[in-house]
Structure formats: structure tokens, C-alpha cells
UniProtKB/TrEMBL annotation:
Matching SUPFAM superfamilies: Fibrinogen C-terminal domain-like
Domain Fibrinogen C-terminal: 4-186
This protein's name: Fibrinogen C-terminal domain-containing protein
Taxonomic source organism: Eleutherodactylus coqui (Puerto Rican coqui)
Listed GO CC annotations: extracellular space
Pfam families: Fibrinogen_C
Gene3D superfamilies linked to this entry: Gamma Fibrinogen, chain A, domain 1
InterPro entries (alphabetical): Fibrinogen-like_C, Fibrinogen_a/b/g_C_1, Fibrinogen_a/b/g_C_dom, Fibrinogen_C-term_domain
PROSITE patterns: FIBRINOGEN_C_2
Length: 225
């Protein structure tokens, strides 16, 4: 039986055909190597850009520069880094999955059918597509006063929100604050998702994956042919 081996650059976790979640090196642009945690499932490989299992509450209230470069432990609670997320999400069209573990320990999903982060010159503004899932849409439903889609990133030392106040100083952690929030998963004081948890979720993570350009065909299948 012929085994097809994909050669060349592994631009994302999706390009790595593995069964085991773990640390892998990807190359979103030529010669830019990036260590990431990959998650593999029935729908292909996903790159983890955030995990907050409330194992290390003190890492989240930090500076613009730390959110830019990334912090934490890739195997546990971490932020991959806005510059890395920008690189990954702008080479190919991506979609995103926000996973939340409720106070009762049940997993809920919020999927967005497109996802990208603009560059630092646009303050890592987030762009999201259509929502589907069972967590509730806390990222785009709060518009116009608490919507996160199309917002710039803010940290305790950079106020890029639309509030007269400084949301990141008040709410804690870095996020795409508006006026101020419907959601914030990067928070040591508690995970916040308007429809699901007001600080009492047990954990969260955010996964991204390239969207293959073959309409109607799921990504994993598309990659396998
Ligand atoms: Ca402000």
C-alpha cells in the first residue's frame, strides 16, 4: 500500500499527520520556526494559541510585550503570543474554536468560521467570522458596546479599547476589550464568557486551523486526498 508522505514545510499543525497531541515545530513562513502544542482529532490538526486551566493564575496580568511574544508553559497554561498568532493566521485563511469547561465540568464550544489577527501596527485587531456552537457567542454578540470582533488588543500598559476607562487595568489580563467585555479568557481572577460563566468556568482554550479551499469538504478529509 502506498503511503503518502507530505514533504516540505509544515506550516501548521494541520500539515502534521500525527495522532498524538503534543509539542511540534511548525513553520508558518519560510525559515520562521515556531514551537506549538498541536491537538489532533477527527477534524484534523489544530494549533493551540491559549490555554487557561487556572493552574497559574499570576501569568495573565502582564504587559503588551509579553502578550506579543507569548508566555507560560506550552504544555499547560499559556498564551502563544500575538505576533505568532498573527503570523499563523494570516498566511492562510483560518477558523477558530474556543473551548470552555463550565463550572459543572461540561465542555462547550464556540466556533468562528474565520479568524485572523492583524499585525502590531493594527494593535493585533481580531477578525472573526460566523459563530456556531453551544457555548454562546460572547465574541461578536455584544456589539456595539461589548463586542470583541474587530477590536484591538489591550493590556495593562496599552489602552486600545473603546471605553473612557482602561478595561485591561480594571478587568485584568490582555484581551480585545471594547467597553468593556462579554468575554475574557486571559484572566487570573476568573474565566469570563457572558452566556456561560461569570468568572467560574474551570478552564478554557483556543484552537485555530487553516480552512482548506475546497468548498463543502471538511478540512481533514481535504488534506488527506
Ligand atoms: Ca479606554
Amino acid at each position: 500500500m502506498l503511503e503518502r508522505v507530505k514533504k516540505g514545510r509544515m506550516e501548521s499543525c494541520t500539515a502534521i499527520k500525527q495522532a498524538h497531541n503534543g509539542l511540534y515545530v511548525v513553520e508558518p513562513v519560510p525559515n520562521k520556526l515556531l514551537l506549538v502544542w498541536c491537538i489532533f482529532g477527527e477534524d484534523g490538526g489544530w494549533t493551540l494559541i491559549q490555554r487557561n486551566c487556572r493552574k497559574n493564575l499570576r501569568i495573565w496580568d502582564t504587559t503588551w510585550d509579553c502578550y506579543k511574544k507569548g508566555f507560560g508553559d506550552l504544555k499547560n497554561d499559556h498564551w502563544l503570543g500575538n505576533e505568532h498568532i498573527h503570523l499563523l493566521s494570516t498566511q492562510q485563511l483560518h477558523h477558530a474554536r474556543f473551548r470552555l469547561r463550565s463550572a459543572a465540568g461540561k465542555q462547550h464550544l464556540a466556533n468562528y468560521d474565520s479568524f485572523s489577527l492583524e499585525g502590531e501596527n493594527q494593535c493585533y485587531r481580531i477578525r472573526l467570522g460566523r459563530y456556531s456552537g453551544n457555548a454562546g457567542d460572547a465574541m461578536t454578540s455584544g456589539e456595539p458596546s461589548a463586542g470583541h470582533d474587530n477590536m484591538k488588543f489591550s493590556t495593562r500598559d496599552q489602552d486600545n479599547d473603546l471605553s473612557g476607562a482602561h478595561c485591561a487595568q480594571m478587568g485584568g489580563g490582555g484581551w480585545w476589550y471594547d467597553n468593556c467585555r462579554f468575554a475574557n479568557l486571559n484572566n487570573g481572577n476568573g474565566i469570563y464568557w457572558q452566556q456561560l460563566c461569570r468568572g467560574d468556568c474551570q478552564g478554557s482554550d483556543i484552537l485555530i486551523q487553516p480552512v482548506e479551499n475546497c468548498s463543502g469538504v471538511p478540512c481533514a478529509y481535504c488534506n488527506a486526498v
